[in-house]
Design goal:
about 80 residues, mainly alpha
């Protein structure tokens, strides 16, 4: 499935471009790939935080991983 893309322009603080150049060279990716990945990761993080806040705002009982393991008989 091919997705359409939207061009985006950003302005970086002085000096950041050189740092970004060195970083992407060491990672063997383009600036575009790095920025695209960073934006997508930030969007995913923001959506995760919103989902967590939504659950917590409902004041429902939550369980720790240890509690779930104990309940399922998976504790070591």
């Amino acid at each position: 499935m091919r997705h359409s893309v939207v061009p985006l322009s950003i302005r970086l603080p002085e000096g950041a471009d050189a740092i970004l150049d060195n970083l992407v060279k060491s990672l063997h990716i383009t600036k575009g790939q790095f920025v695209r990945n960073a934006v997508i990761e930030k969007i995913e993080d923001a959506l995760d935080i919103k989902a967590i806040e939504d659950v917590l705002s409902r004041k429902e009982k939550t369980y720790s991983l240890d509690e779930v393991k104990r309940e399922l008989g998976l504790d070591d």
